[in-house]
Amino acid sequence: MKRILAVLFLAFLPLTAHASAPPLTTHTYKTVGGLPLRADVYRPDNRGGRPIVVWIHGGGLILGSRRALPEDQRRLYLQSGYVVVSIDYRLAPETKLPGILEDLGDAWAWVRAHAAEIGGDPARVAVVGQSAGGHLALAAGQRLRPAPRAIVSFYGYGDLAGGWYATPDTGVKGYNEADARGSVGSKPLAEGNDDRRDIFSMWARQAGRRPQEIVGTEGEGLVPFSPRRNVGPLFPPTLLLHGDADTTVPLAQARQMAEALAGAGVPHRLRILPGSGHAFDFADRALGQRDVAEAFGDVLVFLSQWLGSAPPVADPGLTAGRQERLSALVEANVQAVHSFQVGLARKSGQGEPGCWSAETLDDAGLQSLEAHQASLLRQDVAAVRAWVEGLPSSFDPARDVEPLRRVALPLAPALPLSLITDDFTTRAAQTDPAGIRALANLYQTIFEVERDGDRLQELFSFYIALGLPVSVAPLGLPGTDADFLAWGESQSPKACASPFGTSPPEWQIAGRKIWNWREKHLHLRDAGVLAAELLEEPEVEAFRPRLSTLGPRRIVVIGHSFTMGQHWASPSAFVPIATEVFRRENPKVVVRQFEGGGLTSTRGEKFLPEALAFKPDTVLLVVANRTDQDLLAFDRIGKVFKDAGAQVYWFDDVEDPQTRKTGQVERNLVAARAAGMTVVEVGSLLERATGHDRFLCLDGIHMTEPWHRLMAKQWLALLVGARGPALTP
Known about the structure:
- The protein is an alpha/beta fold.
- The longest helix has 27 residues, at 322-348.
């Protein structure tokens, strides 16, 4: 009977012969004891700046080589725009796991050092591995620094110390030690393509000898080599894929790894394939099976979410049909948004008829198109991505895409959508029609500001999942406020009258929103990034030891948009930034945040039952009080928490423009003190801060990153006792 390891790790599928087959270059990333360790590099084309996938073969750490990457999987990564680097490493039992991990670290260093040379971006590298390669991918997340941007583990294992690895496998029989030791050698090797090595692998499983023969230790000595037992807050985002019929690596390994990641607050997903065994992706024509194809759709979605979009692939042999499918999805969304805005023009009576007419559709017809878009954006993006890549998929374009495309509402040249498409096509460093159109669709949506909290965010997620650009940055276009204003001044006069504002400042705000939301969605600048930066600042370094030694705390924050991380004005807000600092430095400090845009005390009272049930010892209120009713609610909230034994804080003046305009600052202070709250002085500090003139964002209401950084430091310093409620002279 053909052994599963031989199927998985020795069955190398050669490149099929066609003109667009990507060139292979082989590099030696390390030589140890005269043994060269090699990496195969595949590039979609000669363009640079591409995200990189480092692929690690499996084989129980005993057999296999870099050549085991199946051609259909490799092609899938290439047509999505990734550089693929498939690496060898020294194999066991001739080299134990510590040496293999050294090779992993050296391969990682080589990829980062040579990224530009091979067409890649060293800041956007993911590690993907199968089985034992999945274990090494997880080990990469545990050990490599800087860490990979993302980890994908196919049926890998994260715990060598939990008993499974050392327990004799009763399902494996008929192997003896003498034959096993005769099947391997004494000299290190890195390409285990002799299937006799499988004899040793199977004997080690049968005898329960894997810890001694492969790792070189046993018992508690396995703990340092078990990623599951070493997950921390800096572990990279991780996708785990596993079949529930796997008899080689138990599904429990993936479940336990997922639990460890969840416990550390690490973004992760576990995708379980019903009925699939080990090496489900190495079966004959595996990508022709829908469940496997959609699993790979999920892999590509995950990589896009954490590595961002790739430059378009120039080789048409790799992308045949793909661009057409992407364009169909984008144009469906374009038509849906336009139909909604035609409806706005009808209701408001605003907008130039030549731009906003749809004579063939009544209001019900327009609403049906919006419903189709809502349905499209709710589809399983893994299935949609599989369809885009030309794989079997449960996604049916006839359901929502075709009805939207059939309508074909006229799109006048003076529409903002059309102007943006033409402008980006002219100015973009790399022309990608589907990508440019997707970006124009985001701008088309954002001008109509009432839906920038829901439909726009759905579109962001959808296009990121498809690997499309979601700001002008990937197009090589500039992104300063001055650039966006100049852009608005050039385009606004050309735009037809619309049912929403299209003045130059509104074009400027649209540009800033799109840019900032891309950075949030792709985690280029978010609470995690700002927390890491803050921890390196001298002001925070001075009290960093107090962060880790602070005793258990339960903190509730009830606040308006100044506390909310999702607002476009800043990469994050001071509360999520401080919360992320504690997640990294001291998980005993737990924060629950209750929030709402423009949240007043009256509206905030609805959070009291849940907030009190959390049993906080510390409460921060950052709410708006516009009316006498709000002040009464403010008093009730403060007293309820105080009676429950919590310390309740209120900042004296956060420079909220509306509060200042109405003279509410002093009334708030009087009410806070009357309710027994502790007033924390920050107003004068903000007033005299360097860069104070950059605190207020373009909308004249919300605060930018410098304000949130300063407030995060003050909030942290207060919590750890590095400052008191009153400012010291």
